[in-house]
Amino acid sequence: MPPSGFNLARFDFVSIHLAVACAQTGSLTSAARDRNLSLPAASRRIRDLENALGDALFERHSRGLAPTAVGRVFLQHSLNMLQEMESLASEIADLRQGIARHILLCSSTAAINQFLSPLLARHAETCPQIQVEVEEQLSELVVASLRDGRADIGVFVEGPDIYGLEVRDFRKDELVLVLPAGHRLAGRTPISFADTLDEQWISLNAGAAMLQKQQQAALAAGRTFKLRMQVRSFDAVGNLVASRLGIAALPKGTAVPLARALRLTWRPLADGWAQRQLKVAIRPGPDTAVVALRNFLCAPSRNAKTA
């Protein structure tokens, strides 16, 4: 229930859009023009909103408008509300086109690059009424998104705490050493990670499952992990290695095509942690569409690449 004196009947989306535009532009004139309103009509709408709230939304000065503390709170909630309304309109439009369900899948980069793309393309063909939306995240954040209810299904590298989730094996992958052409460590036989630690390394940003394994392995060997550069993507890692700025480890399914494209070389790692299990997880009690997608992803498929 709104607080006493808070008149929701005097709110409408035209006025809310106008207030947001005022905050974003700092000008009532610009906001009125953007919303196709005359200046007097826009001024009246802002004044009506302020009367309904019982507080000023903006401070007026010679340079334009600046949100008050109440205005900043109003802006935050208005943006959330407008985004929700846009999502509502989008989902209604999808229903008219036969899309009955949206599923948010959060996934690690390794799973997207190596396995998920062909699987999701096949799923879209066989289940056109289900729209799967994908968000790329670090494995730890994939699990966190599942726990807080933001994601419906998650695919990640084994390692994060999975207590309370329904988890199944998805695919296996293998980390390999990626080197510039002609590097002294180039070879075909497996090499121990400890034997690479005299080199400068390139890896992913903090929180990545691969980086955590590298740091743990260096610590176990009593050596320093000489991490020179951290980037967000496997492609960026490959390009930095190609520029001879360091060496790296990447999933084999990504490393092999990158090596061909960038004239790199790769070598197996002998360490057990280089063999990784990828997992699929959902929360307990999901709807049938989420369960069906989980089962589809976990089923053996000729359409999914193998590492």
UniProtKB/TrEMBL annotation:
Gene3D superfamilies, per database record: Periplasmic binding protein-like II, Winged helix-like DNA-binding domain superfamily/Winged helix DNA-binding domain
Q: Does the keyword Transmembrane helix apply?
A: no
Instruction: Give the GO cellular component terms, alphabetically.
Output: cytosol
Q: Name one GO molecular function term.
A: DNA binding
Transmembrane helix among keywords: no
Print the keywords alphabetically. DNA-binding, Transcription, Transcription regulation
InterPro entries associated with the record: HTH-type_LysR_regulators, LysR_HTH_N, LysR_subst-bd, WH-like_DNA-bd_sf, WH_DNA-bd_sf
Tell me any Pfam family this protein matches: LysR_substrate
Domain HTH lysR-type intervals: 23-68
- Family designation: Belongs to the LysR transcriptional regulatory family.
- This chain's protein is named LysR family transcriptional regulator
Print the organism lineage. Answer: Bacteria, Pseudomonadati, Pseudomonadota, Betaproteobacteria, Burkholderiales
